[in-house]
Amino acid sequence: MKLEQNIGIIGCGNLGVSIANGLLKNGVVEAPQLWVSKRKPESLDHLKDQGVHVSSSNVELIQNCQLIVVALKPYTILDELEKHQELFKGGEHCVISVATGIDLVNIQKATGQEVTVFRAMPNTGADVGTSLTCISTSDSESKHVSNVQKLFGAIGETVVIGEELMNAATVLGACGIAYVLRFMRAMIQGGVQIGFDAETASKVVAQTVKGAAELIIQNKKHPEEEIDKVTTPKGCTIAGLNEMEHNGFSSSLIKGITTSFNEIE
After folding, report:
1. Residue partners of 171: CB distance under 8 A and separation at least 6
2. Deepest in the core among 46, 130, 170, 202, taking most CB within 10 A?
3. Which of 142, 161, 180 is the last residue of a domain?
4. In 3D, which of 43, 15, 47 has the Cα closest to residue 34?
């Protein structure tokens, strides 16, 4: 379903480009509805060539857009929003921050009390349309909720959560990509040790991980139920799993997740 509003992306870096590409690819907006800004916009010429408005001016973007994604670094976002506060209009603008650790209260203060604000936490799966974006707002009855879901739905799946879970969402959903990739790297290394060349091992591991994820997504079962299907008595699978657990596989992953969470707080 198409959005009628103009969409703006302030600080259109890698994530912003992924969002823009998803919106265009899935027909959520037409190119003339999309405005993107970056300090050095030359790297966005490929979007400009498609008819997207590309600029180094955030003023122009705010004046022409209703839904505004702010993809700036956490240490710059509030100053930038406050600098342009007089441009934001309550009832017209909706501001969505993807900055880690900046809460809704402070975003609201920076934009003005009448502006609807959201936090969203996509992950780098956005680049291939498979992000999981967690969304939170202080106004769950806002008319903008469905539009924000449509916007991020262009780059994957969305889930609306309470703001108290946004730090946890950052760790599990955004940092989680790195955890899975590190696990995959270790599997590839193991594959090479048992005889595969690196390229073949990478292909086998990537497809295996994709298959495992789809089993959980489509069958909607706990991972342990799917594990039971491939572990036979005295088999090689259970032997390998037990060896991993003896060496702290699950506990080290859990500790890594909680350490990342504590670092945000």
Report:
1. 257, 260, 261, 264
2. 170
3. 161
4. 47
Angle at 64 between CA 63 and CA 65, to 5 degrees: 105
Residue for token digits 């657990």? 245
CA-angle at 123, arms to 119 and 125, nearest 5°: 145
* pLDDT band at 144; cut points 50, 70, 90: confident
Verify that 91 and 12 share a domain, yes or no: yes
Strands 131-137 and 116-121: antiparallel
**Is 1 within the bounds of a domain?**
no
- 251 and 220, same domain (yes or no): yes
Mean of pLDDT values over 86-115: 91
Taking the C-alpha atoms of residue 34 and residue 8, their distance in angstroms, rounded to an integer, is 6
State yes or no: pLDDT of 124 exceeds 90.
no
Q: What is the CA radius of gyration of the chain?
A: 21
The total of structural domains in the chain comes to 2
| CATH number, domain containing residue 27 | 3.40.50.720
Q: Where are the beta strands (DSSP E) in 76-199?
A: 94-97, 116-121, 131-137, 156-160
Residue 102 and residue 110: Cα distance in Å, rounded?
11
Domain that holds residue 197: 169-264
